[in-house]
Design brief:
This protein is an alpha/beta fold. The protein has two domains: 135 residues, Collagenase (Catalytic Domain), CATH 3.40.390; 57 residues, no CATH class. Helices cover 25% and strands 8% of the residues. It contains five helices and five strands. A five-stranded mixed sheet has the order 2-1-3-5-4. β1, α1 and β2 form a beta-alpha-beta unit. The protein starts with a strand and ends in a 5-residue tail after the last helix. This is Zincin.
Length: 216
Amino acid sequence: MLSTPTRSPEVTDFQIQAQIDALNQDYNGTVLGFELENVTRTSNAARFNNVGPGSTEQTAMKSALREGTASTLNVYTAGFTSGDSQGLLDYATSPADYASNPMDDGVVILYSSLPGGSTTNFNLGRTLTHETGHWVGLYHTFQGGCDGDGDFVADTLAEAFPASGCPVSRDTCPSPGLDPIHNYMDYSNDSCMDNFTPGQIDRLRSQISTYRGIEL
């Protein structure tokens, strides 16, 4: 279910379908698939501009628009033009948080990050791919830097800090192997991202089985 808090001519039905197509392409190897169930368009400039994690606008938006159960991915598009959220690209909830606050569950993304949008380097739909990764229980590839348990996935190589652009041959940690800049859970440009690892797929399947009742 995708909701747009204010009607923008730049978020078209074509873009929404292109986003669903991109999401299914990126998650193809996980056997997890997505179908567009509903699109709700509302006109509310305050929510569109000011919505952010923990904000009153977010509470009002999700209370009014959220649909479905733990297995329903609710996606909200916003502008992030003012307030504490100014300049954000996206944010999401995790599956483990659903039981304690079902109404908060979902993903919020910058409207212009949909395929064909105006956000340079982030307009191929990978913003939603990345945030959906959090929604199914994945952490950033750079979680924990070079030390500790990292993202709790053994086959994503350690990375000291987020990638920017597409820095091929980047190596920020002393452990063997280059940084996973092509992974959907890094911060690389959309055009640079192309994979989840087998370990990430195992983790997301376990997470959504445990917390979302989705069996693959």
